[in-house]
Amino acid sequence: MQDGVPGPLRADDPQEISGYVLRGRVGEGGMGTVYLSHTRGGQPVALKVIRREHAQSAAFRVRFAREVATARRVSGYHLVPVVDHDAEGPLPWLATHYVPGLPLDTVLDAHGPLPTSAVLRLTGCLAGALDAVHTAGVIHRDIKPANLLLAASGPWLLDFGIARAADTRTLTTAGRLVGSPKNMSPEHALGRRLTPASDVFALGLLAAEAATGQHPYGRGHALAVAARIAGTDREPPRLDHHPEPLRRVLRLCLAARPAERPTAADVAELCRQSLGTDGGRDLRDFGGWLPDPVASAVARIETATRPRPTSYTPTYVPTVRDPLAADWPHRIRRASAPE
């Protein structure tokens, strides 16, 4: 993948997964490979195929099935829905709607920080998405720039791979913390019980980084940053260089004590008020919301991922199982224009 545009398939890649004709490679990671495909109706999907070594683990398959079940419990604006999956086949896979956009970390590396208005807008929309997550009784636990896509239709939250029900008491696996150390809340870094307030803290970290390109707890090894986060009650981050009203949002989200942080719904409302919007309508008005270089890169991805003819005939046409699939085009249109 170059500049966010899916790359060509490799010689050893399959041409098809369960009837989904593969059009290109979106990315590859420790869990597996993500491919671009399309439904029969022409809607793009991101199809994540799990690596064979993981597929051979019964414990992993249980976790994978739980990931799918968790993702299906949650729906709302700015949450990328699961539309199909197979947790029992030789290689488990998961299909979500494909969002033609760039991860926030890629944008920060290539184009620098975002304008304050864009940061408030993405923070408010992401807070609204987290409100839906928390209402469903789920904690995301991995809010970070790599899991936020910036698209013409707004910001979209990805990856419920380590999400867990809100009543789960421990968040460690085989004695190690699960999550991204640089994006953990203090209680997460200390191995304590998490609540939805942990996601709100991580949202504050993401917003601060989006506004400056720098992590609010400084540079260094991920575990060193996590240690500084864990000690935030003694040495909170300096936020003086952030302009108001963003500074207020950050200060509230990054409160050391979970009980002192606002709810995700409160953060969304605060961002709406900070933008001077009326009734929440303009929070999802994304006309010109991205800087021109980012918008141009996103437009190239949109062009490259449109359906195109193929000479390959699938063994059968996939049937999308999730009823949210039918609503997805309308949801994007509603999110792209004022209501």
UniProtKB/TrEMBL annotation:
The keyword Coiled coil does not apply. Coiled coil: none annotated. Pfam families: Pkinase (PF00069). It comes from the Bacteria. InterPro entries: Kinase-like_dom_sf, Prot_kinase_dom, Protein_kinase_ATP_BS, Ser/Thr_kinase_AS. Keywords: ATP-binding, Kinase, Nucleotide-binding, Serine/threonine-protein kinase, Transferase. Residues 20-275 form the Protein kinase domain. GO terms for molecular function: ATP binding; protein serine/threonine kinase activity. ATP binds at K48. This is Serine/threonine protein kinase. It comes from Streptomyces atratus. The lineage of its organism: Bacteria, Bacillati, Actinomycetota, Actinomycetes, Kitasatosporales.
